[in-house]
Amino acid sequence: QVQLVESGGGLVQPGGSLRLSCAASGTIFSPYVMGWYRQTPGKQRELVASITSSESVNYEDSVKGRFTISRGNAKNTVYLQMNSLKPEDAGVYYCKAVRRTVNAGTVNDYDYWGQGTQVTVSS
User: Fold this and answer.
1) Are residues 111 and 4 in contact, defined by beta-carbon separation less than 8 angstroms?
2) Would you give the DSSP letter of residue 61?
3) Which pLDDT score is estimated for 26?
4) By the 8 A CB rule, do 14 and 106 touch?
5) What are the distances in angstroms from CA 109 to CA 22, 23, 50?
6) Which residues 6+ apart lie within 8 Å of 53 measured at CB?
C-alpha cells in the first residue's frame, strides 16, 4: 500500500511564497511521474506541474516562471516551490504519484493520491 503525505499549505498574502512537500511511503517504488494538482470549488482537479523519473517537467501555463517542481534525492518525494502567489492560485493542492509496471510489453499505470493541502492566497 502506498501513502502520500503532503505538507506546506497555508495562508499567504498575494506576492508571497509557499513550498509544498509530498512524500510517498509504504510499498517501496520509484514513481514514474509525480505531480501536483489543484482543485477549487465547482471545478475539476487540474494539473499544476509534473515531473518524471528522468526529471522532465511540465507546468500549467499560468504558473510558468513562478512555480518550480522538483524531486528529492530519494525520488519518492516531490516539492512545489510557489512564488509570486496570486489569489487565483488558491485551492486544495493534491500530490499524485504514478507507479508504472511493464510486463511482457504491457504497460500499466497505478495512480496514488495524497489527502490534499489547502493553499489560501489573500490579503
Assistant:
1) no
2) G
3) 77
4) no
5) 19, 19, 15
6) 30, 31, 32, 33, 75
Nine-digit cell string for 65: 516562471
Q: Which residues pair with 68 in a beta bridge?
A: 81
Q: Name the 3-class secondary structure at 89.
A: helix
Separation of alpha carbons 109 and 116, rounded Å: 21
**Average pLDDT over the chain, rounded to an integer:** 93
Query: Residue 94: pLDDT above 90?
Result: yes
Pairing of strands 67-71, 117-121: unpaired
List of residues 6+ apart from 35 with CB closer than 8 A: 47, 48, 49, 50, 51, 69, 78, 95, 96
Tens digit of each residue's pLDDT (9 = 90 or more) over 48-76? 999 998 999 999 999 999 999 999 877 78
Band of residue 25 on the pLDDT scale cut at 50, 70, 90: confident
